[in-house]
Amino acid sequence: MIVALLNQKGGTGKTTLALHLAGEWARRGNRVALIDADPQGSALDWSEQRARGRLPRRFGVVGLARDTLHREAPDLARDADHVVIDGPPRVAGLMRSALLAADLVLIPVQPSPLDGWASAEMLALVNEARIYRPELVARFVLNRCATRTVLARETAEALADHDPPVLSTTVGQRIVFAAAAQTGRLVSEIDNAAAATREITALADETVRIVAGKASP
């Protein structure tokens, strides 16, 4: 299974979700590889921070910020149960390559009208990729979300009848994610009982169900 976290807009939390999905699947005993397809290399920086802290390696992180990604990712997938792609903002060639590689695209958005407007360009790329890969599945995921706010509710309602649809799992705006990024850790390693850990577990579960449903006859 190859899952790509993509959005043309920066700052939507793609890297955070990619790292934590990879970490959650690795925690379950799966072989996982994360492809850092962002020229900024944030996932690679996280991995280096983890190594400096002498923390155990949970999954491999590979830098692959080039538009041949769709040809190279399947080789990694042969040796892994799950491959997670942390995509770039505003690099159309890389974005297209990641779309052609993925079984499922998750599009993180925050509860903001600006994120909704910025997603239009991303959806145009998804529709373009479906010309070549009509089986490509895409979902919005509401991220950095204060669930009880009016804006979060309105964003979820606006996406409810959208194509692609929004996941039922939402991920909150939580300080523990920043702490994890700074120390090369995962939220489950900081507090396994935290709400953030439960949200990542639910996100991993829902993602697996979607891909499994796609593969069913």
Automatic annotation (TrEMBL):
Which NCBIfam families has this protein been placed in?
ParA_partition
What is the organism of origin for this protein?
A: Chelativorans salis
* A Pfam match: CbiA
Using the record for this protein, list the coiled-coil segments as residue ranges, or answer none: none
Q: Which residues form the CobQ/CobB/MinD/ParA nucleotide binding domain?
A: 4-185
- Mind telling me which residue stretches traverse the membrane in this protein? none
> What is the recorded name of this protein?
AAA family ATPase
